[in-house]
Structures are given as structure tokens and as C-alpha cells.
Task: inverse folding
């Protein structure tokens, strides 16, 4: 496929997309598949968001009002699983599909057919997962971390469907990562050395390696669960000589790199956007690359900070505390570089830049609460409270999700050829920004005051802040409908975009027309 | 596709298979790691080979016995004495009372655990009901013995040790295989204990 010789014009009708639905079913084009991934993740974002609305509606007041506790647990579990595996991860894979080939000057992904497969198995995975809602015994109800024996001995029968769907998601992620790595390692335009690659490409290269390393471990963990449930083994069953704590070790050996999988591409996105709208070259490119690599490597030796309270020996508690705090150093380097890039830049505040700045500020807040949680003795107080909920939502919602929204506003003129409505975009930003903070900031306080997580009812003293948190959640949820409207409106039409779109844009993707032709860089560009 | 791409794909596929295997290798690795370091309150589920462990000049410590019933396990299960005063370097025998309160034949397995966990490495047992499964007829009762010793190297900071047993209903399991593996040192992956 590397030897395709292109003698026609890019916009030659013969090379355009096929017509009808089969275009999307059979497509091997990286832009089509990127679009599919992005729409799929948007759909999952809305479904997972609807579940969050059920959760916040129930927590609006103390006492049981709307749903049964059993159903609440199912909502909680599915919300987590869908947002992690259905919304954030596929959105980043979609962005990688659209952008990585264009950024490195390649005509397409290295393995286009596998690319098609890795997308099209995803809808089945989530169909299987969501269908468990209608099964006898209900959907999985053990939280997204599915600790054994809650997810084995005490699980509803639908857990087998959950295991199967996690296997499919894992296969999809692994295939996607192989594709990204092979593309980046072997298909860069002549002259584009590794240290000249755009940071989004770097962030995805590192993310893909993390995925390759840990998704098989997740597959192993759910396979062990499957064997414990159906084949009489005792990996996690103490009666048969197994150990439930072993499950937590295996899960978090996957789980901690997983949380960086969900944030590293965001680092790449923020770097591009801040650079563009500051109209300055990014400060400290090389240190950005090294910081991401260090974060990725450290992510393998900090997993037990999720399990400080299981009865680890003192030496292990200390090791995991210090290792975790060490991650603040490369992360601090990144935040420093973003701020320094903005320093004395001629900044304009278009919607992508607003989201990117909010990302830097709010992600840093989430990072700081992470540092608080890393302090072992303090963690015994914070563990399993709303403080943890506030922490990981701060790094995931205004972290990962804001970066994805920033990326959509930033690149959508390149994808559709139309500018989005700047007024509506800003409105969406401010509604989301206020919504997210009103939702999650009070959760720090109720967490410190001792409200446990994963409960449908709570003590009366938490009532006020929970009500405020729910109001914020409804605002944030509703403003995503506005986001959907803005995206659809931009796809339908709007002010035409120029090839470079933004005044300060840098990178190969801005050298092709807007919208990007169906085939780009069939002859590799020269990079100096 | 060029040669470089093929090579990258091969390497990556190898890495995927390797990591999947590694996730299963974590099971024995975890056990070996805990055994070497004495972490996790793990004690051996087989009789000690160390015959020259008894000494005269031990110090006084207290052992507290705790019993748990796992899940819906209906048996009555409790230590004969909650608390005993012993000397390190000297063998003691304690007993647990157990009764099958149901009207069917049942098989049980007890799993021990020690707190604080750094005492685990210094606890040796000549004999323990946890080494094998217990089968009781309906209404049958028994006194189950454990013969144990704490060696003199027990850290001086430890004056009191909790020895806990959880009893599991294993009637539905393939009981024969389980006990055999437990008494076989080579099957390390079957010798894991719950943490405290």
C-alpha cells in the first residue's frame, strides 16, 4: 500500500468516497474511520452522560426518590465503563485516525483494513454491555473497577456479557494501537525525524505503547474472572487458595497506565492549541517529549496507591507514595511549559483556546488533589469518599473531555471546511466551565467531610452541597446538547475555512485544503 | 507494505501476547514475592520441616484467636479459648470447636491469616486443621487442633498476635484436588492467603 502511485488530482471524482451506507461499513480511509470513531464516542458520551444524570437526580436530595439502589449501582457501573472505554478512549483514537497520518505526511494509516475492523467491533462491544441492562438480574453493578469477589462470587449473571464486551474493547484498542505505532514508526514523510514530530503524534505514540502493554493485562484479569465464575478455578477465591487482593494488583497494574492513556493525548492537543493561539513557538518541545515518556514509565510503578488501605506493608506504602509524588515533577514541567508558551504571547481567546486554558487550570487542580491522595496516611481518610470522585472527575472531565472538545473546535474547520459558530462555541464553553466546577468542586468538601462514594443515599449534613452539585451536573449535561447542535450546524454549513484556518497554526495538516481532501499526501511532503 | 512495517507489527504482536502471558504469570509471581518478603500475612499451609525450632529462653506473648464464617457458611465455628498466653520457642496446642448445623453432609476448608503480617514468617505449625478439608455429617461436631510455635526471632515490637481462621463451604468444589495441591510445595500458585 505504500507504493500507490497517484497521477490524478486529489479531488478527482474517481478517488472520492463511495456513496451510501456501505461507504461507512467498508471504508478503509483514515478520515472516514476517524469520523466514525468520533461520532461513536459522542453517542457514548451522551448515553454515559444520561446515566450520570440519573445518578445526580437520585443524589439531588437525601433518601431514595427516583431509582432503586440496585439500579443506581448499575447506572454507576455503566457510567464509568462507558465514559472510560466508550467515550474518552474512542474519541482519542478518532482524533489519532484523523490527525496522525496528516501530521506525519502519510497517505493513510499503515493497516487500513485492520483499522476498519478495530472500529466496527466497538459498537458490538457496547451493544453487549448495554443489553445487560435488560437481562435477568440486571447489568453489572460492581463499579467500573469490578473488584473480585464482588464481580465474581456476588455478580449478577450478566457479568459474563460484561467480560465478553471488555475482551472486544481490548481487542479494538490493541489493534488501534498497533496501527498508530506502525504508522508513526514507518510512514513519516522524509525529513520528519522523531524529534520533529508534532506533539500530538508523540503523545499518541507513547499512549499506544501504554495500550499495548496494559490492555492484554486487562484481558488477562477478565479471563481469570471468567474462569473463576465458570470453570471452577480460584484465582480470586480464598476458599480455593486464591486471593482477592491479587485481583486489585492485576487490575491496577492495568488501571493506572490506563488513566494516563486517557490524559496523554490531551497533553498533545493542549500543546498544539496553546501554541497556535499564543502565536509563539511552543516552549520546551524536547522537555515535553521527555516529560510524557517519564510519566508513561512511572505509571507502571505506582499502581498500589489505589490500594493503600488493603493492608500493604509499610515499605510498600512508602514506595508507592514517593513514586506517585515523583510524577508531579514531569507533570509540573508540562504545566510550566504551557504557561511559559502563553507568557508574552499575543493571545486571542477563540473557543479552542478557552477550552485549552481551562484544561491547564482545572487539570492542575485535579493533579493537586491527586497529590493529596498520594499521601498515604491522609489517603486512609480520603479513601472511597467523594474526594476521590472529585479528584478523578477533575482530571477526566475538564481534563480529557475538555481537551477533546478543544480538539473538535480546533480541527473541525479542517474536517468539514466550515467554521463553527464562534458565539455559540463560547457559550458552550462558559456553560460547560461553570457546570463542571459547580458539579465537582463541592464534592471535594463533602468528601473531606466523610461522604462515601458509590451510595444512593447519604447523611443529611451533605444535602446542600449535593443539591448544588446536581444542579451543576444538569447544567453541564444540558450544555452538551448545545455542543451537539454546534457540531451538526458546522457539518451542515458555515463560513468557509481557509487551508491554514488559524493565524498562528503550524503543522502539515494546515497545508492541505479545508476540508481536507479524501486522500492527502499520496506523494509525501518534504519536511525541513 | 515495507519490511520495516512488517517488523514493527511482528514485534508489537509479540508484545501483546507477552503481556497477556505476563498477566497470568503475575499469579505465581505475587505468591513467590509475598513468600520471600513475608508480606501479606501469608503463612505456609503445610507442616514445618524445621525440627530444631524449640528453645527454652522464650519471651511471653499473647495469641488471640479469631474465627469467621465466609458468606452463608452455616457451621458453628469458634475457638475454644479466645486468648492464650504463650512463650516463643515453645509448642502450644489450641483447639477450635466446629459443628455442622445443617442436615446435609458438608465439606469445609479453613484459611488462616496472621496480623501483624510481619509475624507470619515466624509462625510455624506442626499440625493444623487448615492443612486439610473437614468433612462433617449432619449435626456432627468436632474439636479441631492446631499445634503451633512462634520462633525466637519474632520481632521484639510484637507482643500480641492475632491468628484468624475463615471457614469456607467447599462442598461443591473438587475437594480432593484442592488438598493435594495445598500439601505440595511445587504448586505454589495454589497457596495464596487472603490478606488481613
Result:
Amino acid at each position: 500500500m505504500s507504493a500507490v502511485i497517484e497521477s490524478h488530482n486529489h479531488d478527482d471524482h474517481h478517488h472520492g468516497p463511495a456513496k451510501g451506507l456501505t461507504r461507512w461499513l467498508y471504508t478503509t480511509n483514515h478520515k472516514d474511520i476517524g469520523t466514525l470513531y468520533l461520532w461513536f464516542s459522542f453517542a457514548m458520551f451522551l448515553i454515559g452522560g444520561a446515566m450520570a444524570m440519573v445518578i445526580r437526580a437520585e443524589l439531588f436530595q437525601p433518601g431514595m426518590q427516583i431509582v432503586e439502589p440496585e439500579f443506581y449501582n448499575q447506572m454507576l457501573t455503566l457510567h464509568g465503563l462507558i465514559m472510560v472505554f466508550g467515550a474518552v478512549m474512542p474519541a482519542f483514537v478518532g482524533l489519532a485516525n484523523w490527525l496522525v497520518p496528516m501530521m506525519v505526511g502519510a497517505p493513510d494509516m499503515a493497516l487500513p483494513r485492520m483499522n476498519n475492523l478495530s472500529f466496527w467491533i466497538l459498537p458490538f462491544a457496547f451493544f453487549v454491555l448495554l443489553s445487560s441492562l435488560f437481562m435477568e438480574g440486571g447489568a453489572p453493578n460492581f463499579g467500573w473497577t469490578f473488584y473480585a469477589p464482588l464481580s465474581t462470587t456476588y455478580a449478577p449473571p450478566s457479568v459474563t456479557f460484561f467480560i465478553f464486551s471488555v475482551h472486544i474493547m481490548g481487542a479494538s484498542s490493541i489493534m488501534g494501537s498497533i496501527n498508530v505505532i506502525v504508522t508513526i514508526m514507518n510512514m513519516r514523510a522524509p525529513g520528519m525525524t522523531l524529534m520533529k514530530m508534532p506533539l500530538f503524534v508523540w503523545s499518541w505514540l507513547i499512549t499506544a505503547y501504554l495500550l499495548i502493554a496494559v490492555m492484554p493485562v486487562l484481558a488477562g484479569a477478565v479471563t481469570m474472572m471468567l474462569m473463576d465464575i465458570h470453570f471452577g478455578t480460584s484465582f480470586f477465591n480464598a476458599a480455593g487458595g486464591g486471593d482477592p487482593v491479587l485481583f486489585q494488583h492485576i487490575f491496577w497494574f492495568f488501571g493506572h497506565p490506563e488513566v494516563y492513556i486517557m490524559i496523554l493525548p490531551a497533553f498533545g492537543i493542549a500543546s498544539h492549541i496553546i501554541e497556535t493561539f499564543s502565536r509563539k513557538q511552543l516552549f520546551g518541545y524536547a522537555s515535553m517529549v521527555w516529560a510524557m515518556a517519564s510519566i508513561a514509565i512511572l505509571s507502571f510503578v505506582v499502581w498500589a496507591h489505589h490500594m493503600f488501605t488493603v493492608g500493604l506493608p509499610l515499605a510498600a506504602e512508602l514506595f508507592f507514595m514517593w513514586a506517585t509524588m515523583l510524577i508531579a515533577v514531569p507533570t509540573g514541567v508540562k504545566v510550566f511549559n504551557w504557561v511559559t508558551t502563553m507568557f508574552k504571547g499575543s493571545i486571542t481567546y477563540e473557543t479552542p483556546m478557552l477550552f485549552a486554558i481551562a484544561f491547564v487550570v482545572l487539570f492542575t487542580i485535579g493533579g493537586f488533589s491527586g497529590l493529596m491522595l498520594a499521601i498515604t496516611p491522609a489517603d486512609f481518610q480520603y479513601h472511597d469518599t467523594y474526594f476521590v470522585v472529585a479528584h478523578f472527575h477533575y482530571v477526566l472531565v475538564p481534563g480529557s473531555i475538555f481537551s477533546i472538545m478543544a480538539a473538535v473546535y480546533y480541527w473541525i474547520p479542517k474536517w468539514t471546511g466550515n467554521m463553527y459558530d464562534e458565539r455559540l462555541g463560547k457559550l458552550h464553553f462558559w456553560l460547560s466551565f461553570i457546570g463542571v466546577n459547580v458539579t465537582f468542586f463541592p464534592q471535594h468538601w463533602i468528601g473531606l467531610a466523610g461522604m462515601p462514594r458509590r451510595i444512593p443515599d447519604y447523611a443529611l449534613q451533605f444535602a446542600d452541597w449535593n443539591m448544588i452539585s446536581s444542579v451543576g451536573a444538569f447544567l453541564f449535561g444540558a450544555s452538551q446538547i448545545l455542543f451537539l447542535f454546534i457540531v451538526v450546524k458546522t457539518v451542515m454549513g458555515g463560513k468557509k475555512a481557509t487551508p491554514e484556518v488559524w493565524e498562528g497554526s503550524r503543522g502539515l495538516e494546515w497545508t492541505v485544503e479545508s476540508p481536507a481532501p479524501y486522500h492527502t499526501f499520496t506523494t509525501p511532503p518534504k519536511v525541513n | 507494505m515495507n519490511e520495516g512495517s512488517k517488523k514493527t507489527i511482528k514485534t508489537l504482536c509479540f508484545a501483546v501476547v507477552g503481556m497477556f502471558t505476563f498477566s497470568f504469570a503475575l499469579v505465581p509471581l505475587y505468591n513467590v514475592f509475598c513468600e520471600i518478603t513475608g508480606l501479606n500475612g501469608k503463612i505456609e499451609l503445610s507442616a514445618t520441616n524445621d525440627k530444631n525450632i524449640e528453645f527454652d529462653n522464650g519471651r511471653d506473648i499473647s495469641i488471640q484467636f479469631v474465627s469467621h464464617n465466609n458468606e452463608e457458611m452455616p457451621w458453628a465455628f469458634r475457638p475454644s479459648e479466645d486468648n492464650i498466653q504463650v512463650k516463643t520457642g515453645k509448642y502450644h496446642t489450641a483447639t477450635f470447636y466446629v459443628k455442622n448445623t445443617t442436615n446435609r453432609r458438608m465439606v469445609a476448608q479453613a484459611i488462616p491469616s496472621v496480623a501483624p503480617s510481619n509475624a507470619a514468617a515466624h509462625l510455624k505449625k506442626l499440625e493444623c486443621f487448615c492443612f486439610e478439608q473437614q468433612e462433617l455429617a449432619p449435626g456432627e461436631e468436632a474439636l479441631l487442633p492446631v499445634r503451633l510455635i512462634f520462633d525466637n526471632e519474632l520481632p521484639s515490637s510484637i507482643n500480641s498476635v492475632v491468628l484468624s481462621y475463615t471457614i469456607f463451604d467447599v462442598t461443591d468444589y473438587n475437594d480432593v484436588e484442592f488438598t493435594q495441591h495445598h500439601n505440595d510445595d511445587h504448586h505454589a500458585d495454589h497457596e495464596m492467603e487472603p490478606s488481613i
